[in-house]
Amino acid sequence: MIRHLREAGDLDAADATLILDTARELARLTGGREVKKLPTLRGRTVVNLFYEDSTRTRISFEAAAKRLSADVINFSAKGSSVSKGESLKDTALTLQAMGADAVVVRHGASGAPHRLANWVDGSVVNAGDGTHEHPTQALLDAFTMRERLGRLAGLNVTIVGDVLHSRVARSNVVLLNTLGAKVTLVGPPTLIPVDIASALGSGMTVSYDLDAVLPASDVVMMLRVQTERMNASYFPSAREYSRRYGMDGARMRRLPEHAIVMHPGPMNRGMEISPEVADSPRSTIVEQVANGVSVRMAVLYLLLGGK
User: Could you give the domains of the chain?
Assistant: First the structure.
């Protein structure tokens, strides 16, 4: 098993499948228990090092570590020495001195987890770096697809929206390609990177027409429009974006009967996804959050050599 999880490309098919299988087993072991705790990482220390705001991911990693009986230290850049100008390297050396066995890091700079891995002895897990990657989100998405549809190989997965700013999209394209799924990226030309096919490899196509690809889609993953990362006008208006690329009830009914709709959250309800779709039985949005804890448990368990 690998030592760090910095990007989806760190995983080959065997490693990724091992994580998904382990997550399923951990979900089974803790699912029916009143006390959802296993002693597997007792005595280990996991540090959550978050330089960007996060609700789902930070709480999910904290819950995962605590369910494995690890000691958890939550480090927020706000209110720490980072706000006084402390560098990532100096923070890393502090964590190293504390004996952190794993550092879960979210950072606004692409590549920060790679730098961090050079400075600490423990395992580094990327919880999102800039617009680069978010590998555990891709793993929990793959886990959710496999649980709902029974397989990953050969699935047609359509990822829709703000691909340009989405680390979730990048990690999903790489991981799903590794696991044998076919990915189609859909969005306005301004939000699809021109070099993405060459950067992310084969097994992927690009379309600008959402309605054309829906009938052949097994999975539709809607991405949040990341207005906080936009410094220009990428589409005429929110209404126009929603009309062309939003998932509403009419579009959902064009999907095959078995197809599911996903969203990594947080959602802009009424823009990229309508309440009718978000709250429908086809939606896996709540499942994705629950599955995230099991998948992150599996990642920590395997990286830290849990028995």
Answer: 8-133+289-303 (3.40.50.1370), 135-284 (3.40.50.1370)
**297 and 269 Cβ atoms separated by less than 8 Å:** no
Which are the contacts of 135, defined by CB distance < 8 A and separation ≥ 6?
A: 5, 6, 7, 8, 10, 11, 126, 171, 175
Tell me if 266 is assigned to a ligand binding site: yes
Pair 229, 165: CB distance under 8 Å? yes
265 assigned to a ligand binding site: yes
* 134 marked as binding residue: yes
What per-residue confidence (pLDDT) applies to 228? 53
- pLDDT score, position 230: 47
All residue ranges of the chain with pLDDT < 50 are 229-231
**Which pLDDT value is given to residue 83?**
58
Residue 57, annotated as binding a ligand: yes
137 marked as part of a ligand binding site: yes
Residue 266: cis peptide before it, omega within 30 degrees of 0: yes
288 annotated as ligand-binding: no
Q: Name the nearest CA neighbour of 144 among 286, 49, 33, 269.
A: 286
Q: Is 56 annotated as a binding residue?
A: yes
Q: Does the annotation flag 264 for ligand binding? A: no
Look at residue 43 in the predicted model and tell me its pLDDT.
95
Instruction: Give this prediction's pTM.
Output: 0.94
Q: ∠ at Cα 159 (158, 164), nearest 5°? A: 150
| pLDDT value of residue 128 | 97
Q: What is the pLDDT of residue 33?
A: 78
Question: Is 281 known as a binding-site position?
Answer: no
Angstrom distance (rounded) from CA 256 to CA 243: 21
